Amino acid sequence: MSANRWWGRPATTLAACVARGELSAEQAVESGWEAAATWEGDVHAVAHADATVRATAARTAPPGPLRGVPVIVKDNLCTAGDYPTTCGSRILAGYRAPYDATVIRRLRAAGAVLTAKGNMDEFAMGSSTEFSCYGPTRNPYDLTRVPGGSSGGPAAAVAYGLAPLGLGSDTGGSVRQPAAFCGVFGLKPTYGRLSRYGLVAFGSSLDQVGLFARHAGDVALLYSLLAGPDLRDATTRASPPPDVSAWDRGVKGLSFGWPENLWREGVEPEVVAALEAAAASLERAGARRVAFDFLPGTYAVATYYLVATAEASSNLARFDGVRYGPRAPSTDVWSLYVRSRSQGFGPEVKRRILLGTYALSAGYYDAFYLKAQRARTRIRREYQAAFGRCDFMLLPVAPTLAFRLGEKTTDPLAMYLSDIFTIGANLAGIPGLAVPLGLAGSGLPRAVQLVGPEDSEPTLLRAGRALEVRGEVARLGREHETEFPWPMKR
Amino acid sequence: MAHEAVIGLECHIQLATRSKMFCECPAEFGASPNSNVCPVCLGLPGALPVVNRAAIDAALQLGLVLGCTIREASVFARKNYFYPDMPKNYQITQYDRPLCEGGALPVRLCETARSFPLIRIHVEEDTGKSFHPERTGDRPVSRVDFNRAGVPLLELVTEPAFRQPEECGAFLAGLRRLARWLKISDGDMEKGHLRCDANVSLRPPGSASLGTKTEIKNLNSIKGVEKGLTAEIARQAAVLDAGGRIEQATLLYDADHDKLAVMRSKEYAHDYRYFPEPDLPQLTVDAAWVEEVRGRLPEPPWTREDRYVDHLGLPAYDAAILCETRERSDYFEAVVGAGTDAKRASNWVMTEVLRHVNARGLSEREAALRLPAKSLAVLIGATESGRITSASAKEVLEEVFEKGGDPEAVIAARGLVARSSPEELLPLVREVLAENPGPVAQFRGGKQATLGFLVGQVMKKSGGRAAPQVVQELLRAELGALR
Amino acid sequence: MSIDRDEVRRIADLARLEIAGGDVDRMAKELSAVLDFVAALNELDLADCEPTSMVPAAASLRDDEPDGRRLTSEAALAAAPERERDFFLVPPVVENVNP
User: Fold this and answer.
1) Most C-beta atoms within 10 A of its C-beta, which of B30, B111, B425, C5?
2) Beta-carbon neighbour count of residue A135 at 10 Å?
3) Do C16 and A345 touch (CB under 8 A)?
4) Would C63 be classed as within a structural domain?
5) Among B44, B90, B142, beta carbon nearest to A317
6) Name one GO molecular function term (chain C) (predicted).
């Protein structure tokens, strides 16, 4: 491994060095591509990249808190004038968005450089990044395993150092779970705090743009730059977003929920070990543990797979070969639709469209979609009740560590159940933070999840930071701010 | 067999807002194809809708003036179906919680006041336009233009309370008038600003149950609506009379050939899979907003019509013509307000002013600019008092509508003040009597009507400036003196 | 809850998807399995639970101001799979007219 001294440094440090003139914006961006030279061939985190485009973007980056800092963004975020936006799907092959997503606009305005579009499960439907039309992304910590999904590309890229920051999207866990599998931080904000304008919609009432970084402070900075109301997205909250500037304040006086009933069964020992270690760290840092039972996640999964698929079946109707995307040869409009869509969508997407169409169809709407939306209210109330007893909850991210490629692709239900701990936050619209906690004995990253009430991002970041500084690999020294061992290329 | 027709209408009013329903694209007509579009109304990936307040305001105005109940919390819904002019393959509309419910449109039909009840009014977005059949090279295609996609529409659904096609025609005329009266739409059926689909079924007279209904689309004019319904009622009656059953169907009406064609077969029956639009909040219309809109509603046309009949003593026919547009009735009221008798003002507006408006293809607004109401009042006053003759008044109108200008100035410039002094007129009278011995003899022989002819001759000689009453008196005097 | 082949085809038609003959049974099985799982919702007490709406009700509405930030026709048509001058082209739309 080359001794590129920028690998793993926080984005804030990188930006400061660029601002001081220690290196140019182009050098900052290319330092990540040196890491890619080692890793990308195996990991395949990138869907689209272009050296000339990023060099120009670096050279012309405006002054701002992130000037010169490379960011990898998931391929379902619209970027205009530089890279295609294809959502990992054949049905958008070659599509170039004529406008920037709002979060992309804000990122560029802060001086950040879009260094690549990240690989993803097609239309964000998946938990392993095995369902991309470009082929799977692999976990840098073990190339026989998945990086998680659907934002596996950005997670893996941030893990191996292509960029210190990444944007993904989280509808049922698609930022938090790959963050956990790849050993980086992953934040799903409160619903409505980051604009969805320009995020290709999957489950409109569940989707949020999410943030990847290796360092808690970077998550806080990125959040503060991107969060806030957007007149182009009527689902954003009008009030100013929560202030995360005190992310390093510590957790003294805070309490965390400990719903142990959720992981007594069906969860790998390493996952439980990570939870125990995290709880101990938080207590040492001055937080108080509050034990109680919580509603099992199976209900959340069932609710999610009706609501998300219903919304998706409608959101994906626009992909029809009429205005953009490849068109199958046809002599009538019916065939145009059926052939273009059938050839363009992969099997998982088709499965979910069918499920969602069914859930909404005449005669079934009450029994499925409406019932699911009621169950969702019930689930929200469960979270509200829990947060009446604690400031945030400590949960697993997933029942397992990163699983092997091909392990769950033939059993859709098994794949869906891997979201059992993350889905609830999307249904309730509350924020969730995946916090990396070193490596298991097998060399795979471990992580825990923190969830809190709406607008509790400041609390979650404080707790995440507390875990970061007390992480079991803190022996590397805080001054280097690289707590986590780099993936070892075998 | 006797049959009673049961007809319901579903009307769409295209609103004249400046921007579209869910995006900032101009909602204007006539731009070059696919130039008033953006990611939202083109249905590009990642785009999101944002509601146009003016469209809701227009719906509130219409709903309040028709006496609807306004729902404080209404919901947008997605109606899912595939069609090439649908950018998202779903339409954002309102389904089970529409903005307005109930209400009725008062209509005068054959001098009788009627009222046709509504079920609901809601807001939705329009589709793009597809043109077919077309060809490119030797291949058949359809062309699609998305300029219209996303333009705001109000959908208004009536109760099935119509029994005759004429009632539907009167309803649509009233609705068109109202849309223009409120200035929420241009209401032009030929341009598609006002569209109408009709549902019709037959049943035995006096029955309370409903027969199978068919839907008729492509009714592009009020006449077309009446004729299409007449044709379909006849068709259904024939089927029933022959012992057959009515099949549910959607029919297209071809106005040029007065024919109906079945549009869709049942196998493409739509399951729209309505669900609440997750990208938009519930639409909250609080009491304050409702009262604010109510406070600026204009007097509705039917109330004005009634007022003209009851308080101004005008015939219903006159009131209807005067109230055809808000501009016209505002104008009429301004003329009355300037001191003119209502019946006279009504006559002048209906005959003289409208004649010029129609002959010159002026808009009523333009007409009012050329001949402001106060000026017309003055002109009427001058004619009534005899200061100018009615022939001169017509001259004045001709000039003012042609070139503009103040009537008084025209009267002065052309020397139109009527000549009414006997000294001036007597010579002319005597000339005419001398030149027309035949008619004189006829008059003296008892044919009173020739007096009119003789008056006319004097008027001609005076270039229309002689005061007709004076002329008549002088003629009688002279004729009487001829012994 | 079981979905059979005919149901799969009906839903596929609604969604404008074609499921290859050999895949219909598999799809039916997979969908049925998910629906069986989803039946767990019947165990929840949903007595006083109204359907969720995630969007804050007091969201402000947009002023009726046309904005020049729309796309040029070129940009709008740039990704068109088939176009002729300023129009999108599609195969002919047939209204299924039977005179």
Assistant:
1) B425
2) 12
3) no
4) no
5) B90
6) transferase activity
Q: For residue range C35-78, what is the model confidence (pLDDT) as tens digits?
A: 888 888 999 889 889 988 777 666 679 999 998 668 989 999 99
How many whole angstroms from its chain centre is CA B459? 40
Q: Which fold has domain B422-482?
A: Arc Repressor Mutant, subunit A (1.10.10)
Q: What is the pLDDT of residues B234-284, one digit of tens each?
A: 999 999 999 999 988 889 888 888 888 887 654 456 799 999 999 998 999
Task: State residue B69 phi and psi, 5-degree precision.
Answer: -85, 130
Choosing among A191, A358, A361, A384, which should be mutated to test the C contact, i.e. which has the most C CBs within 10 A?
Answer: A358
Residues 71-100 of B with CB under 8 A from C: 73, 82-84
| Partner A contacted by B39 (CB < 8 A) | yes
CATH of the domain at C9: 1.10.20
Taking contacts as CB-CB distances below 8 angstroms, the residues of chain C near A96 are: 78-79
Closest CA to B382 of B410, B350, B363, B405: B410
d(CA A439, CA A139): 13
Q: Are A434 and A189 in contact (CB under 8 A)?
A: no
Residue numbers of A annotated as active site: 74, 150, 174
Q: Check if B149 contacts A (Cβ < 8 Å).
A: no
Checking if the pLDDT of A482 tops 50, the result is: no
Please report whether residue C31 resides in a domain.
yes
Whether C31 and chain A come into contact, CB under 8 Å, resolves to yes
Whether the CB of C81 is below 8 Å from some CB of chain A: the reply is yes
* Full-model pTM: 0.92
Question: Which domains occur in chain A, in start order?
Answer: 11-254+403-478 (3.90.1300.10), 298-373 (no CATH)
How far CA A298 is from CA of A52, A164, A293, in Å, comes to 48, 35, 14
Residue numbers of the domain that contains C23:
5-42
Dist. CA B411–CA B43, nearest whole Å: 62
Neighbours of chain A (3+ CB pairs under 8 A): B, C
Measured distance CA(B397)–CA(B405) in Å, rounded = 10
Question: Which residue in A has a C-alpha nearest to residue B280's C-alpha?
Answer: A234
CB contact under 8 A, C50 and A238: no
Domain ranges of chain B: 4-290, 299-413, 422-482
Q: Is the pLDDT of residue A474 over 70?
A: no
